[in-house]
Amino acid sequence: MKLNNVSRISSAKRVVIKVGSSSITGENEKQLDLIVDLAVRLMQDKEVILVSSGAIATASPIIGLSAKPEDLATSQALASIGQARLMSRYEASLARYGKLPGQVLLTVDNLSDATSAANALGALERLIELDVLPIINENDSVATQEIRFGDNDQLAAQVAALVQADLLILFSDIEALFTKPPTQPGAEPISVVPFDGSLDGVEIEGSSTGYGTGGALTKVAAARLATASGTGVILTATKNAVDLDTKPHTHTWFEPKA
Ligand code: GLU
User: Fold this and answer.
1) How far apart are CA 71 and CA 123, in angstroms?
2) Which CATH number does the domain housing residue 205 bear?
3) What pLDDT score does 145 carry?
4) How far is the CA of 254 from the centre of ligand 1 (A)?
5) Number of compact structural domains in the chain
């Protein structure tokens, strides 16, 4: 049988979904519902955790900023304003299904401290038992510049390791990892990256445009981390969330460590 995103999702029991700022704010605001629709469909027979960015991007237009702030205190203040708004959007979206979100904000310190990490795991598992969708973001208002996860791809990989997820779905603005930046001629999507497989010769770009910090570089780093702890990773475009569980789509599959 040829494996694709449908079979990879259907065989998973515990799934972490990660969505970035640019996918659910501004002109892509409506895609938040697509993510929630997918999460709710998967919740029928799987344990699902969502890692969502978007706090700072949500707050900026509310207080009249057109670009990402440069200084830490303003970013932290914006994250505090935007996180509340972001969660109310998730709450409204989940209410269409009679479900609730549970907000969990984490820092690097939390996950590197055994007791805090165990408590976070306990809370996440209880939320799942309560049929609530846990929604995780970095606790941006208290994280300092030096120890930030920096990008939620990394946070999502660490969460996947914490909960021993068998699948991490990394949503992105691109459909897959490409052999060279997708805007260049001759760029081909890479369908499978074997565990610890070499990506020599693949041109991987980082980006920190707009509100997201990421690009293919952080996706690959996060996928490496997740696969090393036994989690398979699907990298695909956010728009594919509409039927990712029922229809084959272009994606990159990062094979987990056996
Ligand atoms: N935690 C940040 C936010 O919600 C985003 C971090 C990232 O760019 O991944 O705004």
Assistant:
1) 32
2) 3.40.1160.10
3) 73
4) 23
5) 1
